[in-house]
Every structure is written in structure tokens, then in C-alpha cells.
Amino acid sequence: MKFRQQPDNILRELGIYEPEDIDLDLVAYSLNADIKRTNLTNCEGSIIGTDIKAIITINNNADPQRQRFSLGHELGHWVNDRGKNLTYRCDLNDMQQRISSKKGFRQQREVRANQFSAELIMPNHIYSRYLNNLDATTDAINYLANEFNVSRTSAAIRFVEACQHPCMLICWDKNGNRRWFSRNPIVPDSIWPHRRVMQPHSTLKLSTGLEVDADKWIANEDSEDYVVIESVFSNGYDFLSLIWWKDEEQLN
Fold first, then answer.
1. pLDDT (tens digit per residue) in 5-23
2. Same domain, 36 and 98
3. The pTM is what?
4. Distance (Å, whole) CA 197 – CA 195
């Protein structure tokens, strides 16, 4: 995704090369944006700006990881959408937008702001070093979430985007309905997860690094002929299954 300024470049200019040094308040200061934290209702973050100066307000009732992502999101608006009358008020739904709609101009900007935030908090030039020798399991996601001080969901999404393993992340509601999914670039577009899993109470059991028949998660006709490595975790609202094709030949 194209940004007016790449998150990696912004952080490098500040001499930031380790996850513990990613100070978003410092980043905001360097970009001429002031930060306020206060109680917001039905809103996770907002920004008011001109073409040279911005004021960003973050909901201080949210958990610290959510506040970090919200700040990164608003900085994404500041970097990419600035103008004489920049005004955004972003709720939780905006922060969860991942797929752009050609007809939805506002949605496109929210998706871009979310991607900017993810790459600012887990930048390529740092995050890639931490992926070395990590298998696609819940243990790896927990490790990355702890190192970068992000939610497991955010860590898993970035893991799928950046890792060298063919894998897929699928989000399910508690009734087993698929909410969204993300493929690693190695996984062909022809491979799709089920729209709904049967018996969600037994299917969506927490696991890490468990070998299962692929048709448990994958809808393609030939999925009954091979296995995948599954890891299942919850974010408190939904369940996420991380699927790894350990044998890449099975993708053919």
C-alpha cells in the first residue's frame, strides 16, 4: 500500500531500530502533531488539522494497546490525508476496516490508516528480524505481541503479511461464521476458507501447532487430501485460526 511517507522511513529518521524504542508520541511530535488523551464517547480517536499542524485526541478509556493503534491510525490520516480542513472522528468500526471498497472513499482512507498504523507499530525493518525461525503458531504470535506491545490479533495479521511461510489467518465469530480472513502472498488466491464451521464449540478449541485435516478449515474440494498446522486463539470477542501449510507442495 502506498503512503505519502513510509513508516519505516519515519522511524529510521528518528533513529528507531528496536521495538522498545517505537515511541508514537515522539513520532507525532516529529510530524508536528499534538496529542491529547481524554474520555471519548463512541470514538477511539480523532484528528483536526491544517496543512501544517494537527491535534490528535485519543480515548484514554481504551486499553493501552488499543490507544497505541488508535494513535498510529490518526497519524496515518495526518500523513496521508492532510489538508486545510482535515477532520476525522474514528470509531472502533473504522479501526477494524481491512478491505477497501472502490465505492467507499472514506472506507479506503480508513483501511489505509489502519495499514499505516500496523506498519508504524510493527515496521518492516524491525519486524522482519523477529520472524526468523518462527513457526506459524500461537506461541510465535504471543512472542511477537509481547515484543511489540500489540494485541495478538494485530501481531497475527502482520505475521501473515510478512512471514515466509504459506499461511492464512481466519477470524470467526462465536457462532462459527467467518468474519474476515487474510492470506499470505505465497498462498494462491484460489484457496478459500469455509464461510462457516460446523459445531463451532468443538471446532474453535484453543490450540497451537496442531496437525489437522485441511478440510476442517479449507473449502476447496481437494482439501480432504492433505493436512495443515492449526493454531487457534481468542481475542475476547472472536476466534482466530492461523493455518500453516508446512508442506508447500500441497499448495500446488
1. 999 999 999 999 999 999 9
2. yes
3. 0.91
4. 7
